[in-house]
Amino acid sequence: MISSFQLILREMRHSRLNTCLSLVAIIATVALLVGVHLLTAAAEREARRVSRDLGFNLRIVPRNTDPDRFFLEGYSDQTLPEDAVRQLASAAGTFVTFNHLTPALERRIRLQERDCLLTGLGQSVTGPGEKKQPMGFHIPLGKAHVGFLLAHHFNLKNGSSLRVLNRDLVVEKVLLEAGTDEDLRLYTSLADAQTILGLSGRISEIKAIDCLCLTADQDPLTQIRAALEKVLPEARVLQMRTLADARAKQRQSSENVTAFAVPMTLLAAALWVGTLFILNVRQRRSEIGLWRALGSGSGSIATLFLGKAALLGLIGGTVGYFVGTTIALQFGPHLFPVTAASLQANFQLFPKALLLTSAFAVLAAFLPAMIAVAQDPAGTLRAD
Amino acid sequence: MISCSQLTRNFAPSAGSVLGISQVSFQADRGEFVVLHGASGSGKSTLLLILGGMLQPDSGTLSLDGFNPYTLTRPDAAQFRARTVGFVFQLFHLIPYLDVQLNILAGLPAGSPNATSRADDLIKQLGLLDRQNDYPATLSAGERQRVALARALLKSPKVILADEPTGNLDPSNASIVLDHLDAYRKRGGTVLLATHGSDADRYADRILRLDAGVLVSATSRPPHPTSPR
Ligand SMILES: Nc1ncnc2c1ncn2[C@@H]1O[C@H](COP(=O)(O)OP(=O)(O)OP(=O)(O)O)[C@@H](O)[C@H]1O
Ligand SMILES: [Mg+2]
């Protein structure tokens, strides 16, 4: 007698239409899920990136900052130790609601008879579970980014040199007109700002982007404050509420879409594949009866049906994975131009796709096959 | 070899209850050729299925080669069927995706010794040589019947239960089939053959008659003196 595997192959060749339809169903589902997975990840990256470009929405400042002066001047005149950033980041477990922490030192300074704002920016620390992504804004030692107005006043261009109090800097970038106080700002590295201001090891605030997980009505600020109280009692937090709220809403809505679309796809596919398997098994009821009449055990009969399902799952999962990945890589870059480069195949998804698909196919075939095997052979033999 | 008493089986189709067989008792010995007559719907197939361990009777007892297949566990019952019973179905029941040769081999458990050469012999003897690589869908009813017979014969079971095995065959093909069953019986097998017709009577050691599910007569002498035996 030939092996179960050959029997399965012969049967699949014989019932080509059913095999093809089942395969198409599985491939379409897996492709869709893989594609959706890659594209939602891309969409999330894109949204995060775009919202990050909107700026920071949390400002963590020294507790003894006078709020009135803070708002009048736009910065805290108090300082925190620079190490506060690391303290915050290492308490990630309890203080989970940030994505990027950037230490900053801000002061108003006098530059050749003109007032301007000096901002020193340190290295960003990313949040827990987040891939290290350098912030858009990293300024090397000895370099400066100059606001639009400032550059105009002092006639600065890329590469110009600039003496700020005791420190010589080279203009790395003249910023585009922002229409905010940024136009009057001089950005340097944190270390340079500390040297210039004589505030070695100190910062005036930590800028952060929170996780944007909660909308305004969920009152994120109270939660953030409670968390901060534990980790860094010498600081207080200010949230730019509208910005944060808009982001959180955007994010939640896109998550809701995925949370709805993925299970719906799975359900539709489950019904489709399940129906095809049930039809196939029903068509083959008299065959099941025959195998039993010939004395095959339930196990070897089940192998025929479940083996076929597993095989279809493996083939469909493989093809579907590659089809989905190809589609995502083909269309993704047009959909998400900003983060196009980081859209890549996710190979960890492959074994998962295979395993889940075959498990699902086997599950779909299991019930009808077991029902048929459990009957008297005579009953199933009459099924023609 | 076969011994049954008071076998009864009713069916419950859409409306009411239909009698399959009622209180059937008889015995068949090793090497015996028993022909079962009866009108359509009289319960012949039902009786054969019960005897083959494929349809649980409502009541009555059965002993086949010393076992009651309905008291065995499922795996044991399957093995028992594989070893003991060869069935030739009224509707052939060939596997559509296997060719003639593999259909015949499907009757054997995996790894049976020189199965292929014995299958080839049967293919030759039953005149299926030029069809051995064809699929059931392309065969005539008579050819399918011969494939089904070859499948049952290949495993040399203790009992062959043949349901209308000559119903679709012309006289010469019918003779080929009956001769094979006769040869099998002479090797010590037991044959129980259900039929409307009288083709098989000349081979019969005994003729049973079912009427509306009830065994009404058992003739233990072949009625035709032309029996080749
Ligand atoms: N699964 C079933 N469900 C309902 N009724 C059944 C079933 N199987 C058999 N019957 C009924 O039992 C009776 C006997 O059927 P059976 O098939 O044994 O007759 P038969 O003698 O083999 O007839 P034929 O010569 O036409 O093959 C019939 O009335 C039939 O309708
Ligand atoms: Mg019948």
Question: Could you characterize what this model shows?
Answer:
The complex is a heterodimer of chains A (384) and B (229). Chain A is an alpha+beta fold. Helices cover 55% and strands 17% of the residues of chain A. Chain A folds into 2 domains: 181 residues, no CATH class; 182 residues, no CATH class. Chain A contains 12 helices and 12 strands. In chain A, strands 1, 3, 4, 5, 6, 7, 8, 9, 11 and 12 form a 10-stranded mixed sheet that branches. A two-stranded antiparallel ribbon of chain A has the order 2-10. In chain A, helix 1 packs across helix 10 and helix 8 runs parallel beside helix 11. Helices cover 29% and strands 26% of the residues of chain B. Chain B is built from 6 helices and 9 strands, in the order E-E-E-H-E-H-E-H-H-H-E-H-E-E-E. Chain B starts with a strand and ends in a 10-residue tail after the last strand. Classes of the chains: A alpha+beta (384), B alpha/beta (229). The interface between A and B is medium-sized, with 26 and 33 residues. The complex binds adenosine-5'-triphosphate and magnesium ion. The site of magnesium ion has 4 residues of chain B, from helix 1.
Features:
heterodimer; A: 384 residues; alpha+beta; ten-stranded mixed beta sheet; 12 helices; elongated; B: 229 residues; alpha/beta; three-stranded antiparallel beta sheet; 6 helices; globular; binds magnesium ion
Report the major sheet of chain B: 6 strands, mixed
CATH architecture descriptor of chain B: 3-Layer(aba) Sandwich
Per DSSP E runs of 2 or more residues, the count of β-strands of chain B stands at 9
Q: How many structural domains does the protein architecture of chain B include?
A: 1
Short overview:
The complex is a heterodimer of chains A (384) and B (229). Chain A is an alpha+beta fold and 384 residues long.
Layout of helices and strands:
The complex is a heterodimer of chains A (384) and B (229).
Chain A (H helix, E strand, L loop, with lengths): L3 H11 L1 H38 L4 E5 L4 H7 L6 E2 L2 H7 L7 E14 L2 E8 L3 E2 L16 E4 L1 H7 L6 E4 L2 E8 L10 E5 H8 L4 E2 L1 E6 L9 H12 L3 E5 L1 H43 L1 H9 L4 H38 L13 H26 L2 H5 L3
Parallel strand pairs in A: 4-9, 6-8
Antiparallel strand pairs in A: 1-11, 1-12, 2-10, 3-4, 3-5, 3-11, 6-9, 7-8
Helix pairs in contact in A: 1-10, 2-8, 2-10, 8-11, 10-11
Chain B lengths: L1 E10 L6 E11 L4 E6 L5 H8 L7 E6 L9 H11 E4 L11 H6 L9 H11 L15 H14 L4 E5 L7 H16 L3 E6 L10 E6 L2 E6 L10
Parallel strand pairs in B: 3-7, 3-8, 5-6, 6-7
Antiparallel strand pairs in B: 1-2, 1-4, 8-9
Bound molecules: adenosine-5'-triphosphate and magnesium ion.
The site of magnesium ion (MG) has 4 residues of chain B, from helix 1.
